[in-house]
Design goal:
Radius of gyration: 26 Å
Number of helices: 3
CATH topology of one domain: Immunoglobulin-like
Length: 748
């Protein structure tokens, strides 16, 4: 692969010479709908009632087309969309006709829940008209709100981003009606764009019918990726047009959000008084232009962030935890660089920038003194610059030095759906050498079904790599290539990467070094539509690693799933055979006191997965594996059971287990999580989680009250407690804390 780098650079040069696509037209021959927004002097009341006179002035978008179960035919229940706007706000009125209003499913009301599983509406807005990136806003009959930043048509989904907007809905005798008010200050947009990309997805849960205003063929979807939140509407290049949005006021030039926080904590084992603390900080957003935003943060605190889910690790490599902190989430997709992250439940191979490296150390918070981020789009360019300074702290028996993180990303849109880009990251810890990483990448999509991509990145020397015995001959680069084909029934991809021995992205995530990685997949999803079977499922996937310097096998996994299906009731299951090979060159301690000696191991397993329709009162997600494990046996699984008692109360029970028997010893690992969520209104909720690791005896609870008392302003009350509990009957509290955080948004 290293010899292919000149060809990659040549292709980059060819693409860079192609016409820039700041605002694009749909692919040739594609007929996409268009509608105009109507300017009004005064906006309607957002109360789920479209009787306001302004709605009568609006153009009506209709003629929705089915995506499921029969693509390309008119929807069985029609939908009407209306758009009006003032200088400061865009309003959307949706009329969702339904012949059986009593059957409408609306179980979700919590902010950022999986609303798309209910009868729901999703608005997609491509505000730069670049046919790649967009905002998505979801709502349902309960007025619940979920919002997403869509990057590169779903290559990256920022589900944690929270914009400021309102929604209200009500049931009628002809279906249901929703109103959405979207302040211009929530959006970044290109005032020179002739239109915005626009699409609307409606899901009729009780009929399991998905429809779109700008119709999408069946191959635009993720039917084989159970649990994925990439939705058909995220195919931004196939959206229609929303015109008439002239004279919009500039996005909010300044938003100031101060906060104060106080907490009390104690270790009940110690005979000392509880410790109390208080602090304050500030977040500031300045709209440099309508399409560029500067974010500043001072004395940042993330006490309100949800705790990480417990994970178990029976591999030799790192776990991966997703980012949940607000400052790092907005426009996070701009900083995405590296090979595609194919399986959302597995760690990625490489991320050149991984924001959890900033302000966190092994899950513990490191104080952030200040941070600055400039993100946005200018013409055909996507731009992102990040600078964060963290404080030095003493932790356990070591000293973490103060550090400065810098990231710069530039990406140019080329042609209809292609791009070229570059990235630089740097970490500069006090008293140590800086680590610098530079890279270039490209995405080339000549048709709607074929995509090619590649990247090359190199790291500078650091004290860590120099001290590990690496030499300059062993290399400090990583590079790769990917191919994608998405047909109507057939999906194929191939990823290939070389990661050299001394490549070290200190601000990123790296799963393995000194490896060549190949990851091909073929998936066949023929439509059956016989009896209760909607789609058959067959997949073959491989994951292969060999050492880069010697070409020796490091590990190999081949998974064959010959049998699987999606039913007409939207339940899915699959049965697979898994063959694994591991070449251990040194002892591997898989569990405390259980050490597998070096050697060449091959083992097999059978895996069964099921994913029920999650819009029901009862939901099940489960994956069970039974088979060999090195020279022993393993029974493993992950099961999630949820009950949606009402829109106000929902529970979720998670159980991850591994029962391993080896000649070197036997062990069981069980991770248990119990969630109970109370949603009083779309702006007030109480989330509770209890987690237990029966191997380590760690037991912890996190109780979090979140009240959005006005748009953009929050009150958090968080209680945490941890116990040592090898036997739950005799648990010992090791730490308890209660924290209160108050934020207030000021828009001068």
């Amino acid at each position: 692969m290293k010899r292919s780098l000149p060809a990659t650079v040549g292709l980059l040069g060819f693409l860079a010479g192609a016409p820039v696509a700041g605002q694009e037209q749909p692919e040739a021959g594609a007929e996409r709908p268009s509608m105009a927004a109507t300017r009004v002097e005064r906006g309607p009341n957002v109360d789920g009632d479209l009787s306001d006179a302004v709605w009568a002035q609006s153009e009506v978008g209709t003629n929705f087309i089915q995506h499921e179960p029969l693509d390309g035919v008119p929807a069985t229940e029609q939908t009407e969309i209306r758009v009006v706007f003032t200088d400061s706000t865009i309003y959307f009125g949706i009329t969702a006709f339904d012949a059986n209003p009593d059957a409408i499913i609306a179980r979700e009301m919590e902010r950022d829940s999986r609303i798309f599983q209910d009868d729901s509406i999703i608005l997609l807005l491509d505000t730069f008209y670049d046919r790649r990136n967009a905002y998505a806003f979801e709502t349902n009959l309960n007025g619940a709100r979920t919002d997403t930043l869509v990057t590169d048509e779903g290559r990256d989904l920022n589900l944690e981003w929270d914009g400021i907007w309102q929604s209200s809905a009500r049931r009628t005798d002809f279906g249901w009606v929703a109103e959405i008010a979207l302040p211009i200050s929530t959006l970044r947009f290109d005032p020179a764009a002739p239109a915005w990309g626009f699409n609307v997805q409606r899901y009729i849960a009780h009929k399991r019918e998905m429809t779109h205003w700008s119709g999408l063929p069946r191959e635009v979807g993720t039917l084989g990726q159970v649990g994925s939140q990439v939705l058909p509407v995220h195919r931004v290049s196939m959206a229609g047009e929303l015109t008439g949005l002239a004279g919009l006021s500039r996005s909010a030039q300044l938003q100031v959000k101060p906060f104060v926080i106080g907490d009390v904590s104690e270790d009940p084992r110690l005979d000392v008084d509880p410790a109390s603390d208080g602090d304050y900080g500030l977040d500031l957003k300045w709209g440099v232009t309508r399409s560029l935003a500067l974010d500043l943060t001072y004395n940042t605190d993330f006490a309100e962030v949800e705790v990480d889910e417990l994970q178990t690790n029976l591999t030799r490599f790192s776990l991966y935890f997703p980012e949940k902190r607000d400052f790092f989430l907005e426009n996070a997709g701009i900083f995405d660089f590296g090979p595609p992250h194919r399986l959302f439940y597995e760690p990625p191979v490489l991320k050149t920038f991984f924001s959890r490296r900033v302000g966190l150390d092994e899950g513990d918070q490191v104080p952030i003194d200040w941070g600055a981020r400039l993100t946005g789009r200018v013409g055909g360019w996507n731009l992102g610059v990040l600078r964060v300074a963290t404080a030095g702290i003493a932790k356990d028996d070591r000293q973490l030095p103060a550090n400065a993180f810098t990231v710069a990303r530039l990406k140019r849109n080329v042609g209809r759906r292609s791009s070229v880009g570059a990235m630089i990251t740097e970490t500069a810890p006090d008293g140590a050498a800086a680590n610098r990483v530079v890279g270039v990448d490209f995405d080339y999509k000549p048709t709607s079904t074929i995509g090619l991509g590649g990247f090359w990145t190199s790291s500078g020397a650091s004290e860590e790599t120099a001290g590990a015995g690496g030499s300059s001959d062993s290399g400090e680069a990583a590079y790769g290539f990917n191919f994608d084909y998405q047909g109507r029934d057939l999906t194929v991809y191939l990823d290939a990467q070389d990661i050299e021995e001394d490549y070290h992205p200190a601000a990123g995530f790296l799963l393995r070094r000194n490896v060549r990685h190949l990851n091909p997949m073929i998936q066949w999803l023929p439509r059956i539509e016989r009896g209760f079977v909607r789609t058959w499922f067959t997949e073959i996937r491989a994951d292969y690693y060999e050492t880069l310097d010697g070409g020796e096998l490091e590990s190999r996994q081949i998974e064959i799933s010959p049998i699987g299906m999606r039913t007409t009731s939207e339940d899915r299951w699959r049965l697979g055979y898994l063959h694994e090979t591991e070449n251990l060159v040194e002892p591997f301690e898989v569990s405390p006191g259980v050490v597998i000696p070096p050697g060449y191991y091959e083992f097999d397993a059978v895996r069964f997965s099921i994913y029920s329709n999650q819009s029901r009162f009862f939901g099940l997600r489960s994956r069970i594996g039974v088979g060999d494990f090195y020279t022993g046996t393993q029974v493993s699984g992950r099961t999630t059971i949820n009950f949606k008692f009402s829109k106000h109360i929902q529970t979720e029970t998670r159980w991850v287990f591994n029962n391993v028997e080896l000649p070197q010893g036997a062990f069981d690992i069980g991770l248990y999580s119990q969630l109970v969520n109370f949603t009083f209104t779309p702006n007030l909720r109480l989330n509770t989680i209890l987690q237990y690791n029966d191997l380590s005896g760690d037991l912890g609870t996190n109780i979090r009250l979140h009240w959005i008392y006005k748009p953009g302003s929050d009150l958090f009350v968080v209680y945490n407690e941890n116990w040592m509990a090898e036997d739950l009957r005799y648990r010992t509290s090791t730490h308890r804390q209660i924290a209160v955080k108050f934020t207030y948004l000021i828009q001068p």
